[in-house]
Predict the structure.
Amino acid sequence: MIAWQLRLLGRRVLVLERGQVGGESSGVSFGSLRLQGQHEAELPLALSAQALWEGMEAALGESVEFVQHGHVHLALSDEHAARLEHNAEVARAHGMQVTLLGRAATLARWTFLGEAVRASSFSARDAVANPRLVAPAVARAARRLGAKIREGVELVASTHGGSGFTLHCRAADARDFVIEADVLVNAAGAWCGAPAAWFNETIPVFAAGPAELVTEPIPRFAEPVMHVVDGSVLFRQTARGNLVIGGHPRMKVDAETRRTRVPSDKILTNLSRLVSVAPHLGDYHLIRSWTGIEGYVEDMRPVLGPSATTPGLFHACAFSGHGLQLGPAAAQALAELIAHGATSLPIAPFGIGRFAAAAQAGTRMAEEFQDDLLQARS
Ligand SMILES: Cc1cc2nc3c(=O)[nH]c(=O)nc-3n(C[C@H](O)[C@H](O)[C@H](O)COP(=O)(O)OP(=O)(O)OC[C@H]3O[C@@H](n4cnc5c(N)ncnc54)[C@H](O)[C@@H]3O)c2cc1C
């Protein structure tokens, strides 16, 4: 997306991707373009992103199965209900329309929900897209405008000298070569800590994989995304009828192989949570599960903006579980910053400077955060 936006602003761009475009996070997500419940600091950027999503298929010239049927946050406890009220207040302060519903109104509107549900909030502007279509479609759009995308090429090291960056690359056939560039964007997802470290910067990023399950196609019953507000379970029905199911806990990633997998106990946990919210959904067959590798930082906000140490270096990574939604606006902001030296989009809260204290202390990300992230954090 950054390459596409940079081409629109007339910059020459080369994307180095050691795997395939969309092979890690961007091609495998749940597909939710959720506004409600986003952190207040993120809402202005998220709203800009949603406007871009609303025009995405026209801009790409192809379908990415963008559907705007809204998003329902569900409360299963008083604490959850208080979160819905707080989130609605924040959202309304940013001009969003969020409807709060009590128990009876929730169960009357979405009759497949069970007695465990206490309250809900509905945001009509929230949407979904199919990430399996989005990632290659965006790559095609960038290529059509002249961006070069080299898959199977890893950036293994980089230095910055008087004239810019020297990039040491390794192709899939183990051939090494060097490229010079005046600007470098660290968009390495869960692995952005390494490029940052080459330039004496710290991004305390942690790689983890959320689990996703999908059923056989089933009769149409739900339009919006249904999402317990603590993130323990969420589900949506695709146009074809399949039910996509996500939720905690997340899985660890093997840093050596860069692989993660969904264990069978995790599948059973998520299915039992699903049935506790929507009892009749236990009657259908799962056809597959999948996961992907996402980068998280402790405040669950992306790292987006210029380097604090190196002119010409920019970071756009660690999207902490909601980078599909934020992606278009994040890319536009970064492209403007690179091409024009400024952006009107609100990215100040996402600067790498917020990790300076951790860098000075030389601390690694708190173990409690990692446990919390793997078990329960949304
Ligand atoms: C299972 C799952 C469900 C999700 N659900 C949602 C959702 O519903 N809504 C939402 O908004 N977000 C969701 N997300 C998060 C979202 O997908 C990500 O935030 C977003 O895709 C991140 O994009 P990215 O480009 O930063 O990272 P990625 O898409 O991971 O891309 C980074 C790329 O960098 C490459 N790379 C890394 N290091 C190097 C190197 N040294 N040299 C060359 N290439 C390198 C990697 O191979 C990778 O392909 C989900 C994520 C997952 C995994």
Notes: Residues 16-19, 23-26, 28-32, 154-155, 187-189, 191, 209-210, 212, 291-292, 294, 317, 319, 321-325 surround flavin-adenine dinucleotide (CB under 6 Å).
